[in-house]
Every structure is written in structure tokens, then in C-alpha cells.
Write a structure and sequence with these properties.
Blueprint (H helix, E strand, L loop, with lengths): L5 H14 L3 H32 L6 H37 L11 H4 L1 H31 L5 H12 L4 H10 L1 H32 L3 H7 L5 H11 L4 H10 L1 H12 L11 H21 L1 H15 L6 H9 L2
Helix pairs in contact: 1-11, 1-14, 2-3, 2-13, 3-9, 3-14, 5-8, 5-10, 6-8, 7-8, 9-10, 11-14, 12-13
Length: 326
């Protein structure tokens, strides 16, 4: 199989998925847990908000603080559930890509690999944060060292010459809408530079580190640093294969983006509360539909490329099967 031809990869993925006997059960369990987590998180968040609105007065200040803390922690807990669930789905797709027996029990792999996954995320966050800050600094340097910053200089020079200090400048920008719009228009080229730099640096880095989770799925003893280093090594000359596959699924990523934006339309277009909840429910149903019908093709395709660049360890499938009786 030529991993650099997305059509070939997708064709093999479809064939393997058609032979996966318990694929439907796996996806039903996955989507059911996903739906339950979303509904529980939303319901608890709404309930906590109602309790906070009824807990008025100084005497209930501690109660409101506790409720506010719980409301803040809910999305974090939901995110952890999704990360574990997605890792379990990735384990199932990896087994399907190798023609191995797979059952809903495979989804428990995400729970078994929770702590390695958490350490991996805690290592990835500072990497991406440092790169992001470096890109911001680089875009500012390019912007202010080129004629692109002339608009900002022309806008701020009269204010500085009049004796305005930085605090006064900030106050003026936050209170004068016209001055704020003029400032944002003047710094727009800097945001363009930032986007270009982010695309040129962050996208390749994300692909270089993109198979670290598969390393953790395959080898539970692999630490976060080892998973990242192996991912970096394996994708050295194979990033384009993953990129071409993702590019062939552009419609899937576009649909997912539109579905995720759908619940926020009520903040742009005035509508009733019931209409807002209807949009949220529609978004949730469409997202689950995308995951159920189309996501397996993408994940199995990525796993096929991973299998091609990293030979299957002798004991990987047996170890997972022995633990969870898949």
C-alpha cells in the first residue's frame, strides 16, 4: 500500500471497516457515552447556574463561590472524559487497521492509559505554548521593523506628543470605539503575519507529534517523552502522508467546524432561549452523526499510515487483548 496516495489508504480503510464485525456496537457505545457526557455536563452546569442565581446575599457568598468553582470544573471534567474516550476509539481503530478482533471493550484502553495520556498532554501544552509565544514575538518584531507598522505609528504619535501616558492610551482605546477600530485596522497586518507564522510552524510540529497517542496505545510502558520522541522520529519524512489524508477529508473538518459553531449563533442572531437550546441539540446530533458515519474512515486511514511507518510490535495486540479480552 502506498501511504502517500490518500485514495489507496481510504480504499483499504473502507475494506477493513466493512470486515470489522462489532464496529457498529463500538460506535454506538462511543456515541452513547459522548452524548451522555455532553448532556450531564450541560444539565449540571444549568442546574448550578440556577442555584447560584437563587443564592443571593452576603450570607451565601461561600455557597456561590463553591457553586462557581464546580461550574468552572465541569468543562474540564468533560474534556478529560472526551480525551479518554477518544483514546479508546483510537485503540479500536488501530486494531481494525491490523485486522484484529475488536469489541466495545477496546474503548476501555483509554481509561487504562489515562495517566500516560495525561502526562503526554501536560508535556505537549508547554511545547505548543512556547511555540505560540515565540510566534507572537516574531510577528511583532517583523511588524514593527517594517513599513507595515506605519499606520500604528501615525495613529499613536499625536497622542504621545500630547503627553498621554500608556494608561491614558489604554483608557482611550477601551472607551472610544472609533479609536479602537482605527487601532485594530492598523495592527491587522501583524495578525496576518502571526497567522502565516503559526501555519508555517505549528502545523508541521503538530504532525511531527501527531502519532504520540498511538505509541501510548500500543505500548503502555512508553512514557510521555518517549512517545513524543518516537512520534518525532517516525514522522520525519512521513508528515506529507498524514497531511494528504487529512486534506482529502477537508469536508469532514469543515462540517465539524460548522457544527461546533452552530450553538453560538444565538449570541449573534437574537433568538429565544428555546431556539438556543434547539440549536445546541441540533449541533450535538450532527456532531455525533459525523463521528458515527465518517470518523472511523479517517482514524483507520491514519492508523494504516502509522502501521506502515512503524512495524507492529510482536506483543502489542496480544497484550491489549489479554488485558481486556477483546
Amino acid at each position: 500500500m502506498n501511504i502517500r496516495h490518500p485514495k489507496t489508504v481510504k480504499s483499504v480503510a473502507r475494506e477493513l471497516l466493512s470486515r470489522a464485525g462489532q464496529l457498529r456496537q463500538i460506535l454506538l457505545v462511543y456515541c452513547g457515552i459522548l452524548l451522555a457526557s455532553c448532556l450531564v455536563t450541560t444539565g449540571l452546569g444549568q442546574g448550578l447556574g440556577n442555584l447560584m442565581s437563587r443564592s443571593g446575599g452576603l450570607g451565601n457568598l461561600g455557597t456561590r463561590s463553591l457553586l462557581s468553582t464546580l461550574q468552572t470544573l465541569l468543562p474540564m471534567a468533560h474534556t478529560l472524559v472526551l480525551l479518554v474516550l477518544d483514546l479508546g476509539l483510537l485503540a479500536a481503530m488501530l486494531r481494525i487497521s491490523r485486522g484484529q478482533f475488536t469489541s466495545p471493550q477496546t474503548l476501555r484502553t483509554g481509561l487504562a492509559r489515562f495517566f500516560p495520556l495525561l502526562r503526554l498532554l501536560l508535556l505537549q501544552i508547554p511545547i505548543y505554548l512556547a511555540l505560540g509565544l515565540a510566534m507572537v514575538y516574531a510577528s511583532m518584531m517583523v511588524f514593527f521593523m517594517t513599513p507595515l507598522s506605519n499606520g500604528v505609528i501615525e495613529l499613536l504619535t499625536p497622542m504621545v506628543n500630547s503627553g498621554a501616558d500608556p494608561q491614558q492610551l489604554v483608557t482611550m482605546l477601551t472607551t472610544d470605539d472609533a479609536a479602537l477600530m482605527a487601532f485594530l485596522k492598523a495592527v491587522a497586518p501583524m495578525y496576518g503575519i502571526l497567522l502565516v507564522l503559526m501555519a508555517a510552524v505549528m502545523i508541521p510540529v503538530s504532525y511531527r507529534l501527531g502519532v504520540a497517542q498511538l505509541v501510548i496505545v500500543e505500548d503502555p510502558r512508553a512514557g510521555a517523552f518517549r512517545a513524543l520522541s518516537e512520534s518525532f522520529r517516525m514522522t520525519r519524512r512521513n508528515c506529507m502522508a498524514f497531511f494528504k489524508l487529512d486534506l482529502s477529508f477537508w469536508w469532514y473538518y469543515l462540517a465539524s467546524m460548522l457544527v461546533n459553531v452552530l450553538p453560538f449563533l444565538d449570541s449573534v442572531v437574537p433568538m429565544s432561549e428555546s431556539a438556543g437550546w434547539l440549536l445546541y441539540g441540533l449541533s450535538l446530533v450532527l456532531q455525533i452523526g459525523l463521528y458515527y458515519f465518517f470518523r472511523p474512515r479517517l482514524e483507520v486511514g491514519r492508523c494504516l499510515i502509522y502501521n506502515a511507518i512503524r512495524p507492529k510490535p510482536q506483543s502489542a495486540g496480544q497484550a491489549i487483548g489479554n488485558i481486556f479480552r477483546m
